[in-house]
Amino acid sequence: MTAPVQAVPAPAARRSQHLRYEPALDGVRALAVLAVMVYHFGQGWLPGGYIGVDVFFVLSGYLITTLLVQNLPEPVRARTFWERRARRLFPALAVMLVAVFGYALTVPALEQAAIRGQGIATVFYVNNWWLLHSGTQYFDAYQQFSPLLHTWTLSVEEQWYLLFPLLLLLLVALRRFRWRWVFALVAVLCASSVLWTAWLASHGAPVDRLYLGTDTRAQQLLLGALLGILGVRQVAAGRARFGYVPAVGVIGLLGLAGCCGHVRHLATGAMGPRAIGISRSVQCDAHRGSRQCDRRSPAFCGSNPCAGSG
Prior knowledge:
Layout (H helix, E strand, L loop, with lengths): L10 H9 L3 H18 L11 H18 L8 H27 L4 H15 L3 H7 L4 H4 L10 H22 L5 H24 L4 H6 L1 H23 L10 H16 L8 H19 L9 H4 L1 H6 L1
Helix pairs in contact: 2-3, 2-13, 3-8, 3-11, 3-13, 4-5, 5-6, 6-8, 9-11, 9-13, 11-13, 12-13
């Protein structure tokens, strides 16, 4: 008598299992936006609000990696990925740039030159390096009106969108793909970014160099990538992404809130050690938001107002 054959879930069903919408992640994103806004408005009671940028990068690394590695070791559909990113980001960016260039016609020539340089750099997603090259003092310049100053984060994100799929494509093309090797490679790159940042800080690198550089920000994106790889592997093994107790999410949020409230300006240049501590707090939030069961996520982060605003 033939044994009954168990049905194997279709690939699409398996993918939907770990690509489902997670309100808690949008909630964390909303809190990060609020922290950055409060900091930029010069409210002294939240001196570390700029740490919200760290949250964005960790979340981006986590979400993008989850999208890219779900079908490995099959070839990465990099072209499709890039097309989707362009359709999502470029229309809004184009509208903003048209409005900014229109505004530039009403300001003095010196300001026009600055806006023109930042605008061209934004189109090619290298504004973070342009700001460093042009000697812009970020923590001073934000006190003045600069309509494109904030696009440096988009530049870092787009550089990540370009380079990380290429890295995965290279591993697959070389037939050197192993999950442990991918995880180890990303971990080494993450640690290298941390050590490089610490080395720059110890040798007197300017705060803006530590804050705006893609190489110094890579540690947060790569930490998110590590979480994404772990989550995909857990789901492939039939387990929940992360089996941590619900209290871990609350601890992560409290740690992040404490950092925002007590971490001062990076005048000491200690971004490397700071980033390690901040990323560990954000890691707890990413763990919490990526649980299969939303009802265990922190109620505040997953609530409709908080998630919707993220």
